[in-house]
């Protein structure tokens, strides 16, 4: 049985047994928080628990590396919508140690793409159309610097109100320990004693 069939079978039971009732809430985040986090499978349950979040507390936006690669992309749009339409009053960017986006090799990804049937002609067409695949697929070298970059991109966006605190953190994917990189209230890195 494939994954889809397993999911659908579980869902039928979930709905029939009214298991959804424990998750009832509305679309507005109770803690007024939007979180941009990595899509890493280790963080599915760990991140909310490490942050003390339950269903309904926050808007959770996930992508590879918790990266904002373009100020006019879907991540920034989601954050703008969260602030103006969904009552988010603070934003947290949470990346993690041991991230798959750290020092990722775009050439390796494109080689895997060709192994899976994407033609060299398609890749060449994209490059000739002006798409910088190497930059688009590139990850980061330093997770803390990556968080700083995403925080700055959010803060400096022309549509983001200046009164929204934007915090930056790194979580350890085994322990859940959060390391504060940018304190959104002060706009600075924490001072360690």
UniProtKB/TrEMBL annotation:
Top-level taxon: Bacteria
Cofactor note: Binds 1 zinc ion per subunit.
Signal peptide: none
Keyword Ion transport in annotation: no
Keyword annotations: Lyase, Metal-binding, Zinc
Family named by the database record: Belongs to the beta-class carbonic anhydrase family.
Protein name, UniProt field: Carbonic anhydrase
Organism lineage: Bacteria, Pseudomonadati, Pseudomonadota, Betaproteobacteria, Neisseriales
């Amino acid at each position: 049985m494939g994954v889809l069939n397993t999911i659908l079978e579980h869902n039928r039971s979930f709905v029939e047994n009214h298991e959804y009732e424990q998750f009832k809430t509305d679309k507005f985040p109770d803690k007024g928080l939007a979180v941009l986090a990595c899509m890493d499978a280790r963080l599915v349950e760990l991140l909310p628990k490490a942050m003390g979040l339950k269903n309904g507390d926050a808007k959770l936006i996930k992508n590879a590396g918790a990266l904002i690669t373009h100020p006019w992309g879907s991540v920034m749009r989601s954050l703008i919508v969260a602030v103006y339409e969904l009552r988010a009053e603070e934003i947290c960017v949470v990346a993690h140690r041991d991230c798959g986006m750290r020092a990722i090799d775009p050439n390796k990804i494109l080689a895997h793409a060709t192994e899976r049937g994407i033609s060299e002609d398609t890749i060449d067409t994209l490059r000739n159309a002006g798409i910088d695949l190497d930059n688009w697929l590139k990850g980061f070298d330093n997770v803390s610097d990556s968080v700083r970059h995403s925080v700055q991109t959010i803060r400096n966006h022309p549509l983001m109100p200046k009164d929204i605190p934007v915090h930056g953190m790194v979580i350890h994917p085994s322990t859940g320990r959060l390391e504060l990189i940018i304190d959104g209230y002060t706009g600075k890195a924490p001072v360690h004693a």
